[in-house]
Each structure stands twice: as structure tokens, then as C-alpha cells.
Write a structure and sequence with these properties.
Layout (H helix, E strand, L loop, with lengths): L3 E6 L8 E7 L2 E7 L12 H4 L1 H5 L9 E3 L8 E3 L2 H19 L4 E5 L6 H11 L4 E2 L7 H11 L5 E2 L6 E5 L3 H4 L1 H13 L3 E5 L5 H5 L2 E3 L6 H14 L5 H7 E2 L1 H8 L4 H8 L3 H13 L3 E5 L10 H14 L9 E2 L17 H4 L2 H4 L20 H10 L7 E5 L3 H4 L3 H9 L3 E5 L12 E3 L9 E3 L6 E5 L12 H11 L9 H9 L6 H7 L1 E3 L6 H5 L9 E2 L27 H6 L2 E5 L15 H4 L6 E4 L1 H6 L7 E6 L2 E9 L7 E4 L10 H4 L23 E7 L3
Parallel strand pairs: 6-7, 6-15, 9-10, 9-13, 10-11, 12-21, 15-16, 16-17, 22-26, 23-25
Antiparallel strand pairs: 1-2, 2-3, 4-5, 4-17, 8-14, 18-19, 19-20, 22-27, 23-26, 24-25, 24-27
Helix pairs in contact: 3-20, 5-14, 9-12, 9-13, 9-14, 12-13, 17-19
The structure holds ligand MGD (2 copies), iron/sulfur cluster and molybdenum atom.
Length: 697
């Protein structure tokens, strides 16, 4: 039989590369890059190309499973979809009956497309509690920038930039299909490159200015950039006068962030800070790429995002061609996290007000991001502010992904009922009462508009799901039917058509074209006469934030755990630990069971300067104990002369293949889930303290 080819998009990571899926005898046989895709231009990476290995893996869960024996045990037995969904329906309805709809939380891990469908489900069910790790992943960027200029600082226009500033961001590993083509285009045309990163990534080493910052001190550096730019009158005077509020207050506020003071805080050299700040201000337009995780995992993540937005604003780069654009997805309010679907926006006021996290982080009521997991834990664990008794997790390995894994495991174990939807067994599915097998991205139809700039792309099912795996949208359609949520969509196609309505296309029509784009608007504020902020201007000094007890100006805060923040702890844990820099081979904790990927990166690694390691008698590739006040894991040394001798970096996501691997190899055994950023709930997992010890054979 001949090979058929289906044009689609890869959903394995947020890049969503264009792919051609090859199918023979009804089976997926190959994944090739689509050269006509406007972002990826034919690029694919190893994990995207591993799709067939993933879907035909012998360990893939292919039947619904229910737990048998002890709840804390790991024994499951196969059951029918009807029985599994029947149990879930009964448990969720019983929880609503006894404890109220808000006692049910449904969550996802990093977005894998299901957010709108889960949210609609929750709205009809009555719960405002959609949980996702946005507080450590993109959410603080959106909160900080939207609070400042009315839109998210998520669409840098690198291809047209004269200066590219990558702040805590290594897209070569984390977003190769979405950003790297444009970055190369910009560099080819002569753009300057500035990288702010404690690690010497390939991009950092290629950069005109690499600022090897001490982890967790970023806000001080941005404030110093702003100070240098204001002091030297390098800002865009016209923009500042017409389109911003509180410039004088900002000027006064940043004046103490002199290069000298900033150098002391950040461990950078004064002249390097100055050179980079001048470069950024001189080379316009300049696009800032803030790392979705790099910028979002700190106790001052909100201030960092606000400061970066202010930096872009005062240099006239907001919404400028080559700067940071304000792209509106063609699906508008029906985009992935659009208000049409947010359970919070669509529930009666008093029910919406119960959204977990709102009491501590009031801004998430205005600029909606999902409930942070760390705001859900107290409700499960202590019934605070009210009890949460039942939960569902789609595509989420909470135990390994979220900080303080032991705590997460204890919390999830204390639920009355948990269901999970995953391809494979994980330390999280082990805690579930019911596990459902989802269809893979190559086995389902979908649309994608999140972070796709001004595009919506069509994902086309190339093969039927491996029996009996099921599209997650279909799972929700079926569950809604069982639970009497009659206003839910009647089919997957209906749901997709509904989301596409603002484009004037049905899914069938979009499928023919593969994509749909709306024109990009530059400097939309000129057209509309305002920014979408309370003052209508860019809020350099945001007076309105004070009503929520939030500082109107961004402030630097020392990491709570660090040489300055906790000097006593520093004596025992003398190295600074940053975690979770991406590796192109893996997505978080997934794929360690996929041979072609495992071969490329078999073990968890600690990037460390050789001089530091040798002081402890540790050689390259040695296994060692890495410890923090939370515990100890095993990890392999990877020597890197570009690491600062007092800083180490540990990859995240390892657990697979070792008995109790989530306790032995998983870096989140060492990270902490408090104190949180007081505005966004961000978790401080990019700047902690640790120690190392040679493992004696
Ligand atoms: N220390 C540290 N920890 C971190 C980070 C860090 O930088 N440092 N980063 C954090 C960030 S930014 C995020 S977003 C979270 C991510 O957290 P998660 O998204 O929970 O992480 P994953 O390990 O990818 O777990 C997802 C699970 O989904 C399954 N899966 C994959 N695709 C699908 C699908 O289409 N459907 C279903 N149902 N299942 C699927 C996989 O098999 C896997 O078990 O991790 C966070 N954890
Ligand atoms: N291959 C792959 N790609 C992914 C993911 C994955 O798991 N694997 N996860 C996806 C998800 S959910 C997310 S949120 C994004 C994350 O996207 P990004 O945040 O862009 O992640 P990275 O590319 O790892 O870039 C973060 C960089 O920040 C640096 N860094 C660490 N601490 C600090 C600090 O204190 N200050 C500064 N300035 N820099 C610091 C790290 O060394 C690292 O190079 O990646 C997405 N893409
Ligand atoms: S970078 Fe790799 S995993 Fe991500 S969308 Fe592209 S091919 Fe898929
Ligand atoms: Mo993320």
C-alpha cells in the first residue's frame, strides 16, 4: 500500500511546527517538516519525529483503568469506557452534592490544547477551579505586562528587530520551531543579540552581550537598564510624553539602581551592564523575548515582567515593527484561554469569586490566569478556604512537574477521588482512582491559536487512535452527557466549529487551507487612541495597583533562599541552584521511555564548573548527591567551563526507569513551593540553594 501524507501541526511542544505525517496501512510511519509553514519553515526536532515511537509504544495505556485493592497501591484493572466515565460522573456529582461544585478541580499541565474544552465543562458543572501551572509558566509575563500596557509581552517580532534581547530564554532548546527562524533572520540582517542567562547557552556565546547574571536578581538588572537609559536620555521622549503615566516617579525610583549597585547584586561587571543597556537603547527596533519559565519562576516574577514591559515601552518598542507586537488570534474571544470559555468569566459572580487563588492573588480576577496549583493544595490538604475533594488531571504529571514533589504527592493522595488522563503510567497516575487513555496529537483534529501570533493552525488527524484511546474533547463530550451537562457541545466537530466561528470558517474549511491569519496591527494604540489599561496609557507608575496592595512600581527582591536572603542556610548550602533549563530532546517529564530520545540524553545532569566539582572530589559524569533543605537526589555531573563557579543548573523531569525514581532523580524533590510571588503566585524554582556530595562507591 502506498504512503499517504497529511499536512498537520505537531502538538508535542508549544512551537507547533508544521509537519507532514506519513501513513502506511493505517499506521503512522513518519513525521517530516512542512517547508511551507510560516513559523517553522520545515524544522522538526527529535521529539516531534518520535511520534510513531510514542503512539505504538508497548507501555502506552490503551484501555480505561480503575484502581483495585488499596487506594495507595498501584494495581489497576482494565474496564470499559462506559464504566470508567460512569464512575467519574458519579464521583464528581456526589462531590458537588455534598461539598458544592467548587470542591471539584480539573487541571492540565502545560497547555496541550484542552483548556477551552475543560473550562466550558467546568462552567456548566459550576466550578471556577481550572488549575494549570500558568503561575510558573507564562502567567506572570501576561499578568505583569497586561497590567502595564494591556497586552502580553509574548510576540517579539525578531525577524524585523535591530536588537534581540533574550531574557532568561533559550529558544534553541525550548521554542526552536516558533522563534528560531525569525531570530536567524534578524541576525542575518545584522541585529545585535543580548542574552541574559546564568548559563553559557549557544545563543549566549554567540551574543554581542552575554550577561551571566546571578540567578534571581533580574529585576535589579532591568531597573538598572531603565536607569541608564533615562539618565542618558536614550528613551523615546515622544512616546513617553504621549503614552505613559508616572515617568517622573519611575525616574526617581530607578535612580538608586546604578551600574555599581547593580553589579554588586547581580555579580556582573558595571561596564558590561552599561554596554548592553546602551546597545539595547541604540539599536531600534528592539524585541524582547522573556522566557516563559525563565522569567516566571521567581518570588518577584510580576515585577520582572512589569520592568521588562516598561523597558520596551520607554524605548518605543511596544507594538512597533521589530519590537514587541500585540497580536490578536483570529479566534479572538474563543482563543485557547479566551474569555468565552473561562469558567471564571461565565459563572454567576458569587460562584466565580470562589476561584482558588483569588483571595491571595486578586489580579487573577482581572487578567484571568488559571488557579495556581499551590493555591489549590491548601484547599485539598486543609479545607482552606473551602474543601476540594475530587480532581481530574489531563496531561499533567503534577508529582514530578510541580515544586516540592513530596508535598504534591501527599496532597493528591489525600483527595477523595482523582482521575488522570495520560498516555503512560507516571507517579501521578499512580495516585489516581481512574486513568483514561487519550488520543495522540496525530490521532485527533484540533485547532491551535495559543502563541501563534496572528494565526490559527489546523491540526489534522492522520490516523485513527490506537484502540481504545480517545480524543480528550470526545472524553469531555461523553462525560458531559453522562453528567447531564446538556448545554455542552454534542460532538468534537461542533466544539471546533464553535471556536472557529470568529474566523467565518468551519473546521472542514480551515482543514482545506491549513491555516488562517489576520493582519498584524502595528501601534494599535494610535488607531484606538489608547492602551487597554485603566489610564489608557502605559502604566509606568500604576496607581491602580495600590488598591490591591500591589506596589505601583516594580521592586527588586532578593531571592528568599540565597546568599543574601538566607545567609545561615547559605553556610550549609553554598551553591546557587537553578533548575529546568530546557533540553530540546524532552518535554518536561515525558519521553524518558522513548528509545531514540533516551539515547540522546539518558541521565539527569547537573551543569557545574569543573573547579567547583573537583573541590568535592567529583569528576565529569560522576553520579553525585545534590541536596537542598528539602531533600537529596542523585544526579550526574556535567562539566561546563561556562558555568559560574558558585552556580549550578539541574535539569528537571527525570523519574522514569528507576524504582521510586520520582524521589531519587526528580529535581522537584529539592525545590520549594513557598514563599510564592505575592502577586502572581509564581514559584521560586530558578534561584535556590544547594550542596553537592560525592557518592562513595
Ligand atoms: N524544577 C522545575 N520544574 C518545572 C519547571 C522548571 O523549569 N523547573 N517547569 C514547569 C513548567 S513551566 C511547566 S508548564 C510544568 C509542566 O508540567 P506538566 O505538563 O505536568 O509536565 P509533563 O512532565 O510534560 O507531564 C505531562 C504528562 O502529560 C502526558 N501527555 C503528553 N501529551 C499529552 C496529551 O496530549 N494528552 C494527555 N492526556 N497527556 C499527554 C505525558 O505523558 C506526561 O506524563 O512543569 C514545571 N516544572
Ligand atoms: N524541549 C522543550 N521545550 C520546551 C519545554 C520542555 O520541557 N522541553 N517546556 C515548554 C514550557 S511549558 C515552557 S514554560 C517554556 C519555557 O521557556 P523558557 O523559559 O524560554 O525556557 P528555557 O529555554 O529553558 O530558558 C530559560 C533560561 O533561563 C535561564 N535562567 C535560569 N535561571 C535564571 C535567572 O535567574 N535569570 C535569568 N536571566 N535566566 C535564568 C536558564 O539557564 C535557561 O537558559 O519552554 C517550553 N518548551
Ligand atoms: S519543536 Fe519538535 S516537538 Fe516542538 S512542535 Fe516542533 S517538531 Fe514538534
Ligand atoms: Mo511551562
Amino acid at each position: 500500500m502506498s504512503t499517504t501524507k497529511t499536512r498537520s501541526i505537531c502538538f508535542e511542544c508549544h512551537s507547533r511546527c508544521g509537519v507532514i505525517l506519513e501513513v502506511k496501512n493505517g499506521k503512522l510511519t513518519g513525521v517530516k517538516g512542512d517547508p511551507d509553514h510560516p513559523h517553522s519553515h520545515g524544522y522538526t526536532c527529535p521529539k516531534g519525529r518520535a511520534a510513531a515511537e510514542i503512539i505504538y509504544h508497548p507501555d502506552r495505556i490503551t484501555k480505561p483503568l480503575i484502581k483495585v485493592g488499596s487506594r495507595t497501591g498501584k494495581m489497576f484493572e482494565e474496564t470499559s469506557w462506559d464504566t470508567a466515565l460512569g464512575i467519574i460522573a458519579e464521583k464528581l456529582l456526589a462531590s458537588r452534592e455534598k461539598w458544592g461544585a467548587e470542591s471539584v478541580v480539573i487541571g492540565t499541565g502545560t497547555t496541550r490544547g484542552t483548556a477551552p474544552y475543560i473550562n466550558r465543562f467546568l462552567t456548566l458543572f459550576g466550578s471556577p477551579n481550572f488549575m494549570a501551572p500558568s503561575n510558573m509558566s507564562g502567567g506572570p509575563i501576561v499578568l505583569g505586562s497586561a497590567a502595564t500596557c494591556g497586552f502580553g509581552l509574548v510576540d517579539p517580532d525578531y525577524a524585523n528587530s535591530s536588537c534581540i534581547l533574550l531574557w532568561a530564554h533559550n529558544p534553541e532548546a525550548s521554542w526552536p520551531g516558533l522563534y528560531m527562524y525569525d531570530i536567524r533572520e534578524g541576525l542575518k540582517k545584522g541585529a545585535k543579540l543580548i542574552v541574559v542567562d546564568p548559563r553559557g547557552t549557544k545563543l549566549a556565546k554567540k551574543a554581542d552581550h552575554w550577561l551571566q547574571i546571578r540567578p534571581g536578581t533580574d529585576v535589579a538588572l532591568v531597573l538598572c537598564f531603565i536607569n541608564i537609559i533615562i539618565e542618558n536620555k536614550l528613551y523615546d521622549r515622544e512616546f513617553v510624553e504621549n503614552w505613559t503615566t508616572g515617568f517622573d516617579q519611575l525616574k526617581g525610583h530607578v535612580s538608586s539602581y546604578t551600574p555599581k549597585r547593580c553589579a554588586e547584586i547581580t555579580w556582573l561587571k558595571e561596564q558590561d551592564i552599561e554596554a548592553a543597556a546602551f546597545c539595547f537603547a541604540d539599536q531600534r527596533p528592539a524585541g524582547i523575548g522573556p522566557g516563559m519559565a525563565g522569567v516566571c519562576q521567581a518570588n518577584d516574577a510580576f515585577d520582572l515582567s512589569r520592568a521588562l514591559t516598561i523597558l520596551s515601552a520607554i524605548t518605543g518598542n511596544l507594538e512597533a515593527k521589530g519590537g514587541n507586537l500585540n497580536c490578536v488570534p483570529p479566534t479572538r474571544k474563543r482563543s485557547c484561554y479566551g474569555p468565552d470559555f473561562s469558567a471564571f468569566d461565565n459563572l454567576p459572580k458569587e460562584q466565580a469569586a470562589k476561584k482558588l487563588g483569588l483571595d491571595r492573588f486578586p489580579l487573577i480576577g482581572f487578567i484571568p490566569i488559571p488557579s495556581p496549583p499551590q493555591a489549590v493544595w491548601p484547599a485539598i490538604e486543609h479545607g482552606k478556604p473551602y474543601p476540594v475533594k475530587a480532581a481530574g488531571l489531563f496531561a499533567n504529571n503534577s508529582v514530578c512537574a510541580y515544586p516540592n514533589s513530596r508535598h504534591v504527592s501527599n496532597v493528591l493522595s489525600s483527595l477523595d477521588f482523582l482521575f488522570a488522563v495520560d498516555y503512560f503510567h507516571t507517579p501521578t497516575t499512580a495516585l489516581a482512582d481512574v486513568i483514561l487513555p487519550p488520543a495522540h496529537w496525530s490521532e485527533r483534529d484540533e485547532i491551535e491559536d495559543l502563541l501563534m501570533k496572528n494565526h490559527v493552525f489546523c491540526q489534522v488527524k492522520a490516523v485513527e487512535p490506537v484502540p481504545e484511546c480517545r480524543d480528550e474533547k470526545q472524553i469531555l463530550v461523553d462525560l458531559a452527557k453522562k453528567m447531564g451537562l446538556n448545554d455542552y457541545w454534542g460532538s468534537v466537530r461542533e466544539a471546533l466549529d464553535y471556536r472557529l466561528e470568529p474566523t467565518g470558517m468551519t473546521f472542514e474549511e480551515l482543514k482545506k487551507h491549513g491555516k488562517f491569519a489576520t493582519p498584524v496591527t502595528y501601534k494599535g494604540y494610535e488607531k484606538y487612541g489608547k492602551f487597554r489599561t485603566p489610564s489608557g496609557k502605559v502604566e509606568l507608575y500604576a496607581e491602580y495597583l495600590t488598591m490591591m496592595g500591589i506596589s505601583p512600581l516594580p521592586n527588586f527582591k532578593e531571592p528568599d533562599e540565597g546568599p543574601e536572603g538566607s545567609p545561615q542556610l547559605y553556610e550549609k548550602y553554598p551553591l546557587i541552584l537553578t533548575t529546568g533549563g530546557r533540553n530540546v530532546v524532552y518535554y518536561h517529564s515525558s519521553h524518558r521511555n522513548i528509545p531514540s530520545l533516551k539515547k540522546r540524553a539518558p541521565d539527569p545532569e547537573l551543569q557545574i564548573h569543573p573547579d567547583t566539582a573537583r573541590r568535592y572530589g567529583i569528576e565529569d559524569h560522576d553520579w553525585l548527591y545534590l541536596s537542598s533543605p528539602r531533600g537529596r537526589v542523585e544526579i550526574r555531573a556535567r562539566f561546563d567551563h561556562d558555568m559560574h563557579p558558585r552556580v549550578v543548573h539541574a535539569v528537571h523531569g527525570f523519574w522514569y526507569g528507576v524504582e521510586e525514581g520520582w524521589k531519587k532523580l526528580n529535581i522537584n524533590m529539592l525545590t520549594n513551593d513557598e514563599p510564592l510571588c505575592p502577586v502572581t503566585g509564581s514559584v521560586p524554582i530558578k534561584a535556590l540553594l544547594c550542596n553537592i556530595e560525592k557518592i562513595q562507591k
